[in-house]
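Supplementary Note 3. Input sequence used for the single-chain structure prediction.
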Amino acid sequence: MTAAENPELWAFLTSVRPGEILSGTVAAIERFGVFVSLDDGPDHPVFPGVGFITIPELSWRHIDAVSDVVRVGQRVSCEFLQFDDWNGEARLSLRAMQPDPFATFAEGVTVGQALHGQVTKVVPFGVFVRVADGIEGLVHLREFAGMSVGTAESIPQVGDELTVVVTEIDRERRRVALSPAC
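The predicted structure, written as discrete structure tokens, is reproduced below.
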């Protein structure tokens, strides 16, 4: 069934505009997202709610479990993104209601600035370092080349504390490039 086959649902979905704030109650949590029963929306003929939040739209930060962000029965206010006329859903964003930690970080940090952080992940091409709450940057393996870090055993490990220098802030891709401080 498409949304167009349900006149009440279709009228609701076409009346809402992107950016509008909608409130409701979390009706169900699934592995692929969260259904929200909207206060001003009709019942959905198939799903537990006409509002739907995908996992990436729940939070700016990486989450391990949806239950870390919301629970069934919780009241939420979300920004309307678009309507899905195939599933008859109002696609919502909970994270749009929160300040973007990357934007805040990028405003307060400059290229060349030294930061202290903790290694969170070691990958074949470098290490990720948490330099602020919810912000990780990459120290590429090549950045260690000129240092006394010549063997795999001397590459920093998860949990190690490092002082790093910001070499690039890519706002569009939401990435921070780092270099070890000498």
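The chain has two domains: 3-97, 101-180. The two ends are 62 Å apart (CA to CA).
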